[in-house]
Design brief:
Length: 433
C-alpha cells in the first residue's frame, strides 16, 4: 500500500497573514496541521513551535515506532498513542513558556491534528492525536468520516443538544463561532484525544484547518480526494475555499493509500477488517455509533474460527464474551434441543457483557464459522474511557434486550393461547360425546 501525499496553505481572502502551519515527515510517515491563535503574529509563532516540537518528540522515539508491526506486536498501539500524546504535551509546555516569557504573546495557542501511519507496508495502522478544531477526515468506499471531534464552543453546544448545526449562523452564539475549548499552549498542559485504527487499501485522508472544511461537502469530498494527481488536490481545495469566501487561513494535507484501482473487498487481513466493520455497522446494538466510535468497538474485538460441529460454549458454563457471526452458521440449543440458527451479522451471548451468570444455551458451529468476539473486560474498559460512547452502547443494549423480552412474552402468549384452545376443543368434544 504505497503512500502518496501533497499539501497546500494559503492566507485566504480576509486575513493579512497566515497563522496556519503544517508539517510532513516522509520517513516517519507523519502528517500534521496547526491553526494558531493570538493575533499580532503570535498565532503563527504558536503553530510553528507546535509542529516542530511535536515532530522532534516523535522523532526521538522513532526506534519504537519502527518496531511496531501489526502482525508481530512487540510494540502495542497504546505505546504509539502515548508517544503522540506526550509529543503534544511537550509542544504545549514550550508554547506556554514562550508566551509567559514574551508579553506580546501572552495567551497564544494553536490547534494540532496529527496523523502517524505505522506498521508494515502490507498492513498499515493509523494513529491520531488531536487538540482544537482542525480536523482529520477519512474517505473510504465512497463515504466520508470525520475522525476527530471539534473542541469548540459550537460543537459542545450541539453535542449537549442546546443548538442544532443548521442554527449556528442565526444563533446568539455566532460571535463565538471560532472559539475553541482546548488549545495547545494556552495553559501548561492540555487534554489530548487519541485514536488508532486499521488503514485499508484505497483509503484517502484529509488533514485541514477550519478555513478549509467550512467550504467542504461530505458527500463530494471522497471524489475530490481521489480525482486526478494527488499534487493537484490541495491547491484545488484551496481554490474552492477562496471561491467560497476565504474567511480564514486555508491549509490541507491529502494522503492516498494505494492506487485508485483497489478491490471492493481487500484481501487478507485488510479484508477481515473491512468485513468486521461491515458486520458491526449493520447490528442494531451499534446503530447509534459514529464511524469513529464503531472503529473503537472494532478495536476491542477478536476473531475466532470454528469448524463444523465445534462447540463455542456449553450450557451452564461461565460466560465472559459476546459473539457476532461474521461468516458461517451457529446453532443454539438447550438440553440438546435446537433453539435457533444464526447467520452473518447476528449475535449471541450478549448478556455476558453485563451479567456474570452462566450460559443458558449451548452454541455450536453448524458449519465452518468465523466469529467476532467482544469480551466483558474490554467492553467495561471502553465504557469507562468513553462516556458518550457508553451511553449510546447501553441505550442500544437496553433496546435489544427489550425487543427480546417482547418477543419472548409474545411467544409465551401464543403458546398459552394454543394450549387453552386445545383444552377448549377437548372439553367441547367430551361434552358432545
Amino acid at each position: 500500500m504505497e503512500l502518496t501525499f501533497a499539501a497546500a496553505t494559503d492566507v485566504g481572502r480576509q486575513r493579512t497573514h497566515n497563522e496556519d502551519n503544517f508539517l510532513i515527515d516522509k520517513k516517519l510517515r507523519l502528517f500534521m496541521v496547526a491553526d494558531g491563535m493570538g493575533g499580532h503574529a503570535a498565532g503563527e509563532v504558536a503553530s510553528s513551535i507546535a509542529v516542530h516540537e511535536i515532530r522532534d518528540a516523535i522523532y526521538n522515539n522513532r526506534d519504537l515506532i519502527e518496531r511496531y508491526r501489526v502482525d508481530e506486536p512487540t510494540v502495542q498501539p497504546i505505546e504509539i498513542l502515548q508517544i503522540l500524546e506526550h509529543a503534544i504535551q511537550a509542544a504545549c509546555t514550550t508554547v506556554f513558556n514562550r508566551a509567559q516569557a514574551e508579553q506580546d504573546k501572552r495567551g497564544m495557542g494553536t490547534t494540532a491534528s496529527v496523523l502517524l501511519i505505522g506498521g508494515a507496508p502490507d498492513h498499515l495502522r493509523g494513529f491520531i492525536a488531536h487538540v482544537g478544531d482542525s480536523r482529520v477526515y477519512l474517505a473510504r468506499q465512497a463515504q466520508c468520516h470525520q475522525l476527530t471531534e471539534d473542541h469548540s464552543l459550537m460543537n459542545e453546544l450541539v453535542r449537549r443538544g442546546k443548538l442544532k448545526r443548521d442554527q449556528i449562523d442565526n444563533s446568539p452564539y455566532k460571535q463565538f463561532k471560532n472559539a475553541v475549548t482546548r488549545a495547545v499552549g494556552v495553559y501548561a498542559s492540555v487534554e489530548v484525544d487519541t485514536f488508532d485504527f486499521d488503514i485499508l487499501p484505497g483509503d484517502r485522508f484529509l488533514l485541514c484547518t477550519d478555513g478549509l472544511y467550512a467550504y467542504l461537502d461530505d458527500t463530494t469530498l471522497p471524489d475530490l480526494l481521489s480525482t486526478g494527481d494527488v499534487k493537484e488536490v490541495p491547491p484545488a481545495l484551496v481554490t474552492l475555499a477562496n471561491g467560497g469566501g476565504g474567511h480564514d487561513n486555508i491549509t490541507g494535507i491529502v494522503i492516498r493509500v494505494g492506487d485508485d484501482a483497489q478491490p471492493a473487498v481487500p484481501p487478507g487481513k485488510a479484508g477481515e477488517v473491512s468485513l468486521k466493520l461491515e458486520v458491526l455497522k449493520a447490528m442494531q446494538m451499534f446503530r447509534y455509533l459514529s464511524y469513529k466510535e464503531l472503529v473503537r468497538v472494532m478495536n476491542i474485538t477478536e476473531t475466532a474460527d470454528f469448524g463444523a460441529d465445534d462447540a463455542i460454549f456449553h450450557e451452564g458454563a461461565q460466560g465472559d464474551a459476546m459473539y457476532v457471526v461474521m461468516s458461517g452458521m451457529v446453532r443454539l440449543s438447550k438440553a440438546g434441543i435446537p433453539v435457533a440458527e444464526l447467520g452473518k451479522g447476528q449475535h449471541f451471548g450478549e448478556m455476558s457483557l453485563v451479567d456474570r451468570s452462566v450460559r443458558s444455551l449451548t452454541a455450536t458451529a453448524a458449519e465452518t464459522a468465523r466469529l467476532a468476539v467482544i469480551k466483558r473486560k474490554d467492553f467495561y474498559d471502553i465504557i469507562k474511557k468513553e462516556p458518550a460512547l457508553a451511553v449510546k452502547l447501553l441505550w442500544s443494549f437496553v433496546q435489544v434486550l427489550g425487543a427480546r423480552l417482547r418477543k419472548t412474552t409474545s411467544d409465551l402468549s401464543d403458546a398459552l393461547h394454543g394450549d387453552r384452545h386445545g383444552l377448549d376443543t377437548t372439553s367441547e368434544n367430551l361434552f358432545q360425546d
